[in-house]
Amino acid sequence: MDANLDQKEDIKKNPVLKEQEEKIQKKLSQIENKIMVMSGKGGVGKSTVSINLAIGLSLENFYVGLLDVDLHGPNVPKMLGVERGELQRRPDGTVGPVYYSPNLKFMSVEPLLPEKDSAVMWRGPLKMSAIRQFIYDIEWGKLDYLVIDAPPGTGDEPMTVAQTIPDAFAVVVTTPQEVSLLDVRKSISFCNQVGMPILGIVENMSGMLCPHCGKTIDVFKRGGGMKLAEELGVPFLGRIPVDPRVVTTGDAGKPIIATYPNSHTAEAFEKLVRNVINATQALKEKLLEEAKEKQKKKKEKAK
């Protein structure tokens, strides 16, 4: 199954969509790496991983964009502490994203809502249109990384990202327990069907360090994500422990990687960041080699 077939046909037939697509591809050409963070089910800490990954990359002196495409539950602004941050309106009519720091900017539907408690009651076509607008109407500028926080599951939002950003990579977040791992398989299947390369699996809520004795308590089991990654033949990017401060810092809009940089959890996120950087480079080199080999075989066949 090619996720882009229907969309390509629609673009060919519609001049407005064709012009829009040209704008989208021009904007995307200024972004070096695109990573969609997804999960098979809700409640696994996907947004927490997305946000701390984006901040971690920005702390490594990369220019980073964070795109929140969870239209019905946009948590990114709250967790960054800039819920009603203003969009940067420019003289030429373009709109810039909201800045969290000099190296990190983000976009979410939340700043566009009349009130922060307003419900987004959109169906497929509206959601698809909104996500595309987040790319071609927003002046992202040059970025090293665009981290895309997708809602759980394999519905309209992840599908639209796959169709609109064909060179995006996927990071799949899970917790160690079986019910979450079952849903990860569906996410992996989704990526395979739409042709989205998988950067790796992250195991969140993987053990808790007891503040009294220092021992690790396996609240939700431990090691399931790594075992599944090995079974499916995809990289394992790291495990993030259970830490009550993740909740308190997220609610306060001060993510843990920046608030408690010397904590065990922040170190785990920093390791995840390094692994993502390395995995991204390795996967790009692998895909380039595969493309060269494919082209070589094509030339040999044509002789």
Which key features would you list for this structure?
single chain; 303 residues; alpha/beta; Rossmann fold; two-stranded antiparallel ribbon; 11 strands
Please outline the helices and strands.
Blueprint (H helix, E strand, L loop, with lengths): L4 H9 L1 H14 L2 E9 L6 H14 L4 E5 L7 H5 L7 E2 L5 E2 L1 E4 L2 E4 L16 H13 L6 E7 L6 H9 L4 E6 L3 H17 L3 E12 L6 E2 L6 H9 L3 E7 L1 H8 L4 H4 L4 H39 L1
Parallel strand pairs: 1-7, 1-8, 2-6, 2-7, 8-9, 9-11
Antiparallel strand pairs: 3-4, 5-6, 9-10
Helix pairs in contact: 1-2, 3-11, 5-6
Q: What can be said about this structure in brief?
A:
The protein is α/β, with parallel strands linked by helices and 303 residues long. The chain has helices at residues 5-13, 15-28, 46-59, 76-80, 124-136, 156-164, 178-194, 224-232, 244-251, 256-259, 264-302; strands spanning 31-39, 64-68, 88-89, 95-96, 98-101, 104-107, 143-149, 169-174, 198-209, 216-217, 236-242.
Which spans have pLDDT < 50 for at least 5 consecutive residues?
1-5
Query: What sort of overall outline do the alpha carbons produce when their principal axes are compared?
Result: globular
Separation, N- and C-terminal Cα atoms: 30 Å
Count of helical segments? Answer: 11
* Number of separate structural domains: 1
Query: What would the CATH topology be?
Result: Rossmann fold
From the alpha carbons, calculate the radius of gyration and give it in angstroms: 19 Å
The structure class reads: alpha/beta
Specify the CATH architecture: 3-Layer(aba) Sandwich
- Name the CATH homologous superfamily: P-loop containing nucleotide triphosphate hydrolases
Number of strands: 11
Share in helix: 40-55%
Instruction: Please tell me the overall pLDDT.
Output: 88
Task: Indicate the proportion of strand residues.
Answer: 15-25%
At the first level of CATH, the class is Alpha Beta
**SSE run:** HHEHEHEEEEHEHEHEEHEHHH
Query: How would you sum up the major sheet?
Result: 9 strands, mixed
GO molecular function, one term: ATP binding
Function: Binds and transfers iron-sulfur (Fe-S) clusters to target apoproteins. Can hydrolyze ATP.
Binding site for ATP: 40-47
Keywords: ATP-binding, Hydrolase, Iron, Iron-sulfur, Metal-binding, Nucleotide-binding
